[in-house]
Design brief:
It is built from nine helices and six strands; from the N terminus they run βααββαααβααββαα. By secondary structure, the chain is of the alpha+beta class. The chain has two domains: 92 residues, no CATH class; 81 residues, no CATH class. Helix 1 packs across helix 4 and helix 7 crosses helix 8.
Length: 240
């Protein structure tokens, strides 16, 4: 059928319901079920002639009855909606009638409209998916980079500790050098006593000049001499 406005132009209730529910959504109103909509149409058009037929809606359930209404009958049904919804539906009906370039009946016109809506929805879903995927990839990369950096920091700190130059333990020779202090030949005694009182055995590390030397814990240096190893050897190892 053509879209020239005549009394014989028809539309199925399933297609008219698409326009009604779209308008309802725009104004924050709930959608109407097809069976309820058909009942509303029958009530409004009581005594008028219209065609009836059976359609199978999407999803489970038995086939439903549908009506084929004229242009004027569609407008009568639309008049039962709220002011905003009614105006939107009538405007859309007039628009469909006046768009001669569209396919030759309401069903095809609605198919074009619905396909356009589907395309818009698909584009939005693809955009949202792309944004979510990009954010997830960025989070993974950041987590991987942080884990790699943390592992590297731990490795460097372990090497420093093994050399007696760490924030957790340090040899007297290394502390003397960075702190600019001399502890003398018996300077280790109070450090040893601190360890003994706590049941701690200070490990030995190799020094290229003096051979193996004791590496005293950071707590001992802080309590005995007030020296914070982290202040001299760097606190980056605490990132781990």
């Amino acid at each position: 059928m053509n879209l020239i406005p005549t009394a014989t132009t028809t539309m199925d209730t399933s297609d008219l319901l698409v326009l009604v529910n779209e308008a309802r959504a725009e104004f924050g109103e709930p959608s109407v079920r097809h069976n309820d909509f058909v009942a509303r149409c029958r009530d409004e058009l009581d005594g008028e002639y219209y065609e009836t037929f059976v359609i199978k809606l999407n999803g489970p359930g038995r086939p439903s009855e549908a009506l084929r209404l004229t242009r004027d009958q569609c407008k009568l049904v639309a008049m039962r909606e709220s002011k905003g919804v009614r105006r939107r539906v009538l405007a859309r009906l007039n628009e469909l009638e006046n768009q001669h370039a569209l396919p030759g009946d309401y069903i095809q016109a609605l198919e074009h409209l619905l396909e356009s809506k589907r395309s818009e929805r698909a584009a939005l879903e693809q955009r949202d998916h792309a944004i979510a995927t990009k954010a997830e990839i960025g989070s993974r990369r950041e987590a991987t980079a942080m884990a790699t950096a943390s592992a590297a920091v731990r490795q460097v700190q372990k090497l420093k500790d093994d050399l007696g130059l760490g924030t957790r333990q340090a040899a007297a020779l290394a502390v003397e050098k960075v702190a600019g202090r001399k502890f003398g030949v018996s300077g280790y005694v109070p450090l040893r006593r601190w360890c003994k009182d706590r049941g701690i055995t200070a490990p030995k590390v190799f020094h290229p000049t003096f051979g193996f030397v004791r590496c005293w814990p950071a707590g001992a240096w802080l309590d005995v001499y007030g020296i914070d190893l982290a202040a001299f050897f760097g606190a980056e190892g605490e990132l781990a």
